[in-house]
Amino acid sequence: MLRLSSHGIMSRLGAGGSARGLLSSADRLLSKEIQAVRSSEIALSAFSFGLLQGRFKAQGGLTVFALPVDLLAGATFHVLGLFSRHYSHHLHAVGDGALASFFTTTGYRVGERWASGGSLIRGMAGMFGDVGKEPAGGSSIADQELENLVRA
Fold it and tell me: Where are the domains of the chain?
């Protein structure tokens, strides 16, 4: 006979005789597993966008519609995550990785400028980098905007 009482199947599963204990144990295990999946998605996304930016380093980084692809993808994945029921946590994780790639590259470039110029304000002035040099998170944004202003 299958009993769910204190001496039945639940106690054999290590739940101390209660379904609540079994569910609590399963919840703790799944929470750790879900966090590992999310962290892996973020890391893989950041690595992939960093790989793309490195591949197109000579052009100042990969851009789409004059926006850095990692910034654009990060925003896009987050917007898609708002409208998805089943995959929103995965879409947000990939978006977080893309944004991490953008801001890490941008921060690295600001740090380089800061180190060579001696002040953080000077480092922030070069936040968007130079086209044709190291890919900065927003390397093409400022330069193209300035180019458009000069032509107008």
Answer: 42-151
Q: Please enumerate in sequence order all residues whose Cβ is within 8 A of that of 24, keeping only pairs 6 or more positions apart, or say none.
A: none
CB-CB contact of 49 with 69 (8 Å): yes
Are residues 138 and 80 in contact, defined by beta-carbon separation less than 8 angstroms?
A: no
Contact 133/60 with Cβ under 8 angstroms? yes
Handedness of CA 96, 100, 101, 106 (dihedral sign): positive
pLDDT, tens only, 50-68: 999 889 888 878 888 888 8
Q: Distance between CA atoms of 30 and 27, rounded to whole angstroms?
A: 5
Longest dimension (CA), the chain: 85
Q: Say what the pTM is.
A: 0.62
Q: In the 3-class helix/strand/coil scheme, how is the chain assigned residue by residue?
A: CCCCCCCCHHHHCCCCCCHHHHHHHHHHHHHHHHHHHHHHHHHHHHHHHHHHHHHCHHHCCCEECCEEHHHHHHHHHHHHHHHCCCCHHHHHHHHHHHHHHHHHHHHHHHHHHHHHHCCHHHHHHCCCCCCCCCCCCCHHHHHHHHHHHHHC
